[in-house]
Design goal:
With 346 residues, this protein is of the alpha/beta class. It has two domains: 2-145 and 330-342, Glycogen Phosphorylase B (Rossmann fold), CATH 3.40.50.2000; 148-328, Glycogen Phosphorylase B (Rossmann fold, 3-Layer(aba) Sandwich), CATH 3.40.50.2000. 38% of the residues lie in helices and 17% in strands. The protein contains twelve helices and 13 strands. It has helices at 16-30, 79-84, 107-114, 125-133, 148-159, 186-198, 215-220, 234-242, 258-265, 296-308, 310-328, 331-342; strands spanning 2-6, 34-39, 55-57, 70-73, 93-97, 119-122, 140-141, 171-176, 202-209, 226-230, 246-249, 269-273, 291-293. It has a seven-stranded parallel beta sheet with strand order 3-2-1-4-5-6-7. The protein is elongated. Residues 183-317 form the Glycosyl transferase family domain. One of its GO terms (molecular function) is glycosyltransferase activity. This is Putative glycosyltransferase.
């Protein structure tokens, strides 16, 4: 099958959305399908190498784009080009919604895209329930999956030297540094770290991100023991995550938030924003796989509870790994489901 992921006008950068598209494209290619990622600007993705032949540079004249069997819009800015693509009827056009993109488009226009007639795929239960069911729009869930083998093979030598399951005097926390969108709520990370430090319970904050830390946040982090890794490759990211006791997820308006899942496979316990839109509730179940919060104060309380109870930490960690492996699944498993969805068999 010839399949195109439409990224024209949004393109590839160092973010979870681009990572998901590239990993899925590679997995589909290994299944024997001809895959293109349509772009109109050079790729800025550097997290890991991928076959350059996946990329197809196209121009503004949609009628001149190559012919495919299926074409998939990947964000709100790609919907109408996908609709106008003249070589396919609507039944072979899809929209993989991977976040509620209110930061990029107003709600009315977002809804128009959702109601455009494209076959809707969503990457999380909350998007299905909270958006599409509410507006009576049919949708199917397709998770991006996780690079399970890559994480496990990179993790093995790192984890052998770690003994994380005693009572913790000082906690090591990991978090994503991203401040271009207020929805990431990075300032909450600093508030929580400061509160733990005042209680004498804070050890270190590990951060990774795609841009150097802004001077404003450098000042706020000046009294916090922290380590920042800029644009880590996968092995560097796994190494960072595996040094953490807790992964702190503060975001809202995610689809399916990826760093907490990667951290969970690296053995971190998860303390996550409890709003449905946090993008973690497909795998973060309160007091089963994670602890949830609705305020920084509750986040601190939950971290302290984890520090004092190694049995719960171990139980939740094992439960989280089981959920990630069995519910979210690998990229490869989800690629097979993707083909079934594209063929209309689910």
């Amino acid at each position: 099958m010839d399949i195109a992921f439409n990224l024209v006008k949004c393109n590839l950068g160092n973010n979870g959305g681009s990572q998901s598209i590239i990993r899925m494209a590679c997995a589909l290619r290994k299944l024997g399908h001809n895959i293109n990622i349509l772009i109109d600007r050079p790729s800025r993705f550097t997290w890991f190498p991928f076959p350059n032949e996946l990329l197809k540079q196209v121009g503004k004249y949609i009628s001149k784009w190559p012919r495919y069997d299926k074409i998939i819009a990947t964000g709100c800015s790609t919907v109408w080009d996908t609709i106008e693509y003249p070589h396919l009827w609507l039944g072979n056009k899809f929209y993989w919604v991977r976040g509620y993109e209110s930061w990029a488009m107003n709600e009315h226009d977002l809804l128009m895209g959702y109601r455009s007639g494209l076959n809707i795929l969503v990457n999380s239960e909350w998007l299905q329930r909270g958006v599409f069911d509410m507006y009576d729009i049919d949708s199917r869930i397709l998770y991006p999956g996780l690079p399970v083998k890559e994480i496990e093979s990179s993790l093995s030598p790192i984890r052998k030297s770690l003994d994380k399951w005693g009572v913790l005097d000082k906690v090591i926390i990991g978090a994503l540094y991203y401040v271009d969108k207020e929805t990431k709520r990075f300032s909450d990370v600093i508030v929580i770290a400061n509160k733990l430090q005042k209680l004498g319970k804070f050890g270190k904050l590990f951060l990774f991100g795609d841009k150097p830390i802004d001077i404003k946040y450098l000042n706020e982090l000046s009294n916090i023991n922290h380590e920042f890794v800029l644009r880590p490759n996968m092995i560097e990211k796994i190494s960072l995550m595996s040094q953490c006791d807790i992964w702190l997820s503060t975001s809202i308006n995610e689809g399916l938030h990826i760093p907490p899942m990667e951290a969970g496979l690296c053995g971190c316990n998860l303390v996550a924003n409890g709003l449905a839109s946090s993008g973690t509730l497909d795998y973060a179940e309160e007091e089963v796989t994670a602890k949830l919060f609705i305020s920084c104060e509750i986040a601190v309380e939950n971290i302290l509870k984890y520090m004092d109870n190694p049995d719960i930490r171990l139980e939740h960690s094992n439960n989280l790994k089981g959920c990630l492996l069995n519910k979210i699944g690998s990229v490869e498993d989800n690629a097979k489901k993707f083909i079934t969805l594209l063929e209309g068999e689910l």
